[in-house]
Amino acid sequence: MKFKIQTHIKNIYNLLIITSLGLVAMPALAQLDDDVVITKDRKVELPPANRVFEKIPALKPTSEEKTMRYTFFDRKPKGVEEVKFNPNVVAPEGTKNNEELETYNNYATLGAGNYGRLLGEVFLNSNQENNLIIGVHAYHNSTARGPVDDKNSSNMYSKAEITGKYLAEKFQLNAGLNYNRDQYYFYGYQRPREDLDRKDIRQVLNTVQFNVGFENTAPNARVDYGIKTYIRSLKNIYEAQETDWGSSFRAYFPIITEKFVAGVDAEAYVTQRTDDVVDKRNLFRVTPTFKLNFRNFGANIGFKAVNEFDEVKKINRTMGFPMVELIYKHKGMLFFYAGLDGDIIRNTLGSMLNENPYLKSRVSLLNTEKNKEIYIGTKGDLSKGLSYNLRAATGNYKNLYFFNNYSPDFGDALGDTAKFNILYETESTRYYNVTLQLNYQLAEVWRTNLKVDYNNYETKAYEKPFHRPAVITKWGNSFFVTDKFLANLDLYYFGKTFAKNPTTDAIVTNKDIVDVNTEFDYLFSKQFTAFVKLNNLLGRKYERFLYYPQQGLNFLVGVNFSF
After folding, report:
1. What is the pLDDT of residue 12?
2. How far apart are CA 93 and CA 445, in angstroms?
3. pLDDT in tens, 328-350
4. Is residue 502 a contact partner of residue 517, using CB atoms and an 8 Å limit?
5. Which of 8, 155, 3 lies closest to 82 in space, CA to CA?
6. In the predicted model, is pLDDT for residue 65 greater than 50?
């Protein structure tokens, strides 16, 4: 089971090493799982991330950094999460330590907790004042015991990476190499199973990824562009393997004036998945766009051409999706928008395991088609420090996927429903989505972020949208109590979900999830910090997936040393 880190600082991950420049010119131009963001003012914005493992020390504070938007990283409640504290946090404006704040390029963290929890992390990076920045990161988080059957529900996550960035006057080059290892167990079996051998329920995922990117950073360049490419290899101990090569290219340039801009996105993914059979699955996408920006009115008009290929399933098709978005700017900083969109959403073995690590072998993989999504929304600043984004959408999915417990064939080591299969609704599925996000910063005292996500699926092939909650709420808070004391309080709510017992065909209801976590950090000095983190304060062994109860009340205590 993987874990995530929620940080309080500007995350500057993707420190890069200048290697393999020739890979930048690879003919297959495609997109990484995270979008390339290219803007002329060089403002960096971090999108919400579901799986964030990196924690990089902050750059030296500047006036621009002190006014940056405060963001929280989304994470699913899966027991103890990574410590999100970093002693190099930029102090809130108005505190007396702003001018005295000193940052350090390196840190080491040690922690321990119940369930036999061990946490260790170290980060070393070169002088950030140089054009070339190189970083080395190592991380380990493990439990010796789990919520049920002692060692049969333990887990371990380890990571090692080297990253680097070269900053020139008009461009930047970055690269990285990382290795991840996840070890966990299929402990959702029906009990009692005294005869069960741990090796029969063990799973290990090994992932190696190399990435390199090139980006134009000239502030007044007539053409903005960027390119990234990566190659990732995923293997498990059941002889399944997925090799994924993806690249992306983006360019924007004015046609007549700065108010009329053309753009093009080109993406390519070449994937080979081996799990009993060899399956080549590729996807290519080209999206030309035009952006108009007038005083109170803006528009984005484009067209997506997507080619999808699957060798085993005999799929080779190209589809087109028109894109239209109209934007109206009201007085002040209020925006109203409406649009039409569509796409083919790429699903891989890696992305599926990222959502549900307890998948059986040889699961079927299909991409999901999002057809004719219509949306409206509004966003803006309501007052000083308070911003919002409200969006409502409806459309149709084809091959929308669900997770459900799987009844294995006779002779399987588990002999019950501990693993999950992926179910697809091949007919069109109508969906409705409403998302509300509020951000508030009372800079000297309190920073908070609230996100509510509602989804409704009109399923046809299945009685319920298995393991898809209708409501997900995430509320994160940071309190700057004193110059030395920082407190955090996070709340997660997942609505009830449904599953079908494959042996009885009975519909089972998973109760809703309420997960409350808190953390306290005390700065003894500029370099030494102690922290205490308490998770699942209500002590509920909730089940995000059927038959997989999570840890009850758990804690993590540790120290962080910067140097």
Report:
1. 30
2. 10
3. 999 878 999 999 999 999 999 99
4. no
5. 3
6. no
Q: Would the pTM of this model clear 0.85, i.e. be above it? A: no
- What is the C-alpha to C-alpha distance for residues 185 and 187, in angstroms, rounded to an integer? 6
What residue type is assigned to position 347 of the chain? N
Question: Rounded to whole angstroms, what are the CA distances from 289 to 213, 253, 305, 354?
Answer: 23, 11, 12, 31
CB 104 within 8 A of CB 89: no
Both tokens assigned to 558: 């540790």
Structure-block tokens of residue 350? 């890696």
Percentage of the chain exceeding pLDDT 70: 80
Q: Are 398 and 369 in contact (CB under 8 A)?
A: yes
How far is 375 from 282, CA to CA, in rounded Å? Answer: 29
* Continuous H helices in 118-226: none
User: For tokens 């996105």, what's the residue?
Assistant: 265
Q: Residue 64: in which H helix or E strand, if any?
A: helix 63-66
d(CA 377, CA 510): 32
Cβ neighbours for 438, distance < 8 A, ≥ 6 positions apart: 386, 387, 388, 448, 449, 450, 451
First-to-last alpha carbon distance for the chain, in angstroms, is: 31
Long-range contacts of 151-154 (CB under 8 A, 24+ apart): 151/198, 152/185, 152/187, 152/196, 152/198, 152/201, 153/185, 153/187, 154/115, 154/116, 154/184, 154/185
- pLDDT digit string, tens, across residues 475-512: 999 999 999 999 999 999 999 999 998 888 899 999 99
Is residue 93 scored above 80 in pLDDT?
Answer: no
Give the Cα separation of 158 and 2 in Å (integer).
Answer: 9
CA 238 to each of CA 272, 361, 369, 410, 498: distance values in angstroms, whole numbers, following the listed order: 16, 7, 30, 18, 29
Residue 97, SS3 per DSSP: coil
Query: How far is it, in rounded angstroms, from Cα 227 to Cα 2?
Result: 29
Q: SS3 letters for 268-319?
A: EEEEEEEECEEEEEEEEEEEEEEEEECCCEEEEEEEEEEEEEECCCCEEEEE
Q: Minimal CA–CA distance to 18: which of 229, 127, 175, 137?
A: 175
Contacts of 517 (CB under 8 A, 6+ apart): 77, 81, 488, 489, 490, 491, 492, 533, 534, 535, 536, 537
